[in-house]
Amino acid sequence: MSKRAAGRKKRAARKKPVPKERIIFARNLQAARKAAGQTQGEMGRIAGLAQPFISELENGKTTVSLDNAAYLADAVGLPLYKLLMPYPQEESEAKPSGPGAGQGGAQ
Asked: pLDDT digit string (tens) for 20-51?
């Protein structure tokens, strides 16, 4: 094995997992774009960014600067913090269910 191939193998083994915040941003960005009725290309033109970059962001393959994140939020008409917020729990998970649930204890 060449030194170059060995170096690539070492770097690949050291790869860190994708941070959950990147995945949250990716999901929220895609959902906001679709809710705004925009294609990736349209969003890119509004935000001043290239469509392939938007695709990489929505797929969690790359990071975004704070400035570019703000441009993207503006492009879909949302405050930036909404693109960074985790999805709320499903209502069925958030609400107690079953007999006596949510009544503060046994009766």
From this structure: 999 999 999 999 999 999 999 999 999 999 99
Taken as a whole, the chain contains a residue count of 107
Beta carbons of 46 and 38 less than 8 angstroms apart: yes
Domains of the chain, each with CATH number or no CATH: 36-86 (1.10.260.40)
Token digits of residue 95: 């609400």
Core vs surface per residue 54-64: b (16+ CB within 10 A) or e? beebbebeeeb
Q: CB count, 10 Å around CB of 93?
A: 8
Structure tokens at 48: 């001043």
Cα gap 23→59, rounded to integer Å: 8
Report residue 58 as tokens: 């929505």
